[in-house]
Amino acid sequence: MNKIIDGKLISSKIKEKIKEKIQNLDVKPTLVVIQVGNNEASNVYVKNKKNAAINVGMNFNHIHFEETINEQEIIKTIEKLNKDNTVNGIIVQLPLPHHLNSNKIINHIVPIKDVDGLTTINLGKLFNDEECLTSCTPAGIIELLKAYNIKLEGKCVTIVGRSTLVGKPLIHMLLKENATVVVCHSKTVDLKRFTTKADILIVVAGKKHLICSEMVKNGAIIIDVGINKIDNKLYGDVNFNDVLDKVSYITPVPGGVGPVTIAILLNNTLKSYNMMNKKD
Ligand code: NAP
User: Fold this and answer.
1) Strand 200-203 to strand 156-160: parallel, antiparallel, or no bridges (unpaired)?
2) What are phi and psi of 215, to 5 degrees?
3) Has this prediction a pTM greater than 0.90?
């Protein structure tokens, strides 16, 4: 059995469906990415988002500010984009430089255009089981599991990482699927005690090879979200070769969660378009 979850394949299937839907639209959806400064990883992520958006037939607008920009200028731009009916999705590429308050800036995006699902309103709706735009990476993880018919109900799922971007929204998405969720973080004592309990282990810590074979239960499913670039090479948070024999499924890095995250971003932009135009 092939144990390796093919994120690129799942992503292509989602994007193909989006492309078909967009082909039938007279006015194409528009995604806007706001970037500040020249973070090397952000440059790559924005380029990938741009290529993916254009490939499915969306319009893509990249607003790139100098590192020294102040909060008010960014907020003014967001408010203009909020009022522009041709704009459907707005994201602020993270991380922002330290002098800028990400939460404050993101919360100026109107929830209907918040395709990263990071405004307090969308996070609150998720918490409350209300229909909303949800954060792309956790939604992508749920899509990957479903695509491989991996059932969540009754399973013990351990998440390593509690960021607002991934770990926290994921807790609610997993609970909605009736999983039992354990959440670990940097202050967790004896991480192994919790990771070895997991039927499904989701690691989103940003620490190269944090998880090795002895921390994993036999037959576990591993979702490795981490992307660690060291000497121009990408590593996950899980030591892939070390755990491979022990697991029943695993996502590779790269080629696992990353491509699906982008597909969900495009899907959210189409959702926003449909909500703005009162379509399904
Ligand atoms: P983050 O905001 O830095 O959060 C990291 C989390 O991991 C924190 O909750 C932290 O605990 C926890 N942590 C750190 N070291 C740990 C350790 N030794 N043991 C247990 N927990 C530990 O990062 P993020 O934005 O969630 O991203 C995490 C990783 O995922 C990064 O490598 C990022 O590049 C990657 N990522 C990938 C995608 C994708 O599409 N594939 C999307 C988003 C992020 P504390 O809360 O106690 O600090």
Assistant:
1) parallel
2) -95, 5
3) yes
By three-state DSSP, how is residue 262 classified?
helix
With a 6 Å cutoff on the Cβ, whether 180 touches ligand 1 is no
pLDDT confidence of 280, banded at 50, 70, 90?
A: low
- pLDDT tens digits for range 185-244: 999 999 999 999 999 999 999 999 999 999 999 999 999 999 999 999 999 999 999 999
Alpha carbon distances (Å) from 10 to 16, 60, 101, 220, 261: 10, 22, 34, 21, 11
Angle at 71 between CA 165 and CA 116, to 5 degrees: 25
Tell me if residue 187 is catalytic.
no
Residue nearest to atom 48 of ligand 1 (CA): 186
CA–CA distance, 85 with 78 (Å, rounded to integer): 13
Which of 11, 144, 162 has the most ligand 1 atoms within 8 A of CB, as the residue to mutate? 162
